[in-house]
Amino acid sequence: MLTSDDWGSYGREVPKDKHLTGKIIHPTD
């Protein structure tokens, strides 16, 4: 699993639609 820092970087690097998909798989909220 990604650390919170890795996930934060990932969220900034990918397009918004990809980020939303990612949050379904690995929600941080």
Automatic annotation (TrEMBL):
| Domain of life, per lineage | Bacteria
**Compositionally skewed regions (Basic and acidic residues) per UniProt:** 13-29
Which Pfam families does its entry note? DDE_Tnp_IS1
Which GO biological process annotations does it have?
A: DNA transposition
Q: Where is this region: Disordered?
A: 1-29
In its UniProt record, a GO molecular function of this protein is: transposase activity
Q: Cite the InterPro entries for this sequence.
A: Transposase_27
This protein is called: Transposase
Query: Lineage of the native species?
Result: Bacteria, Pseudomonadati, Pseudomonadota, Gammaproteobacteria, Enterobacterales
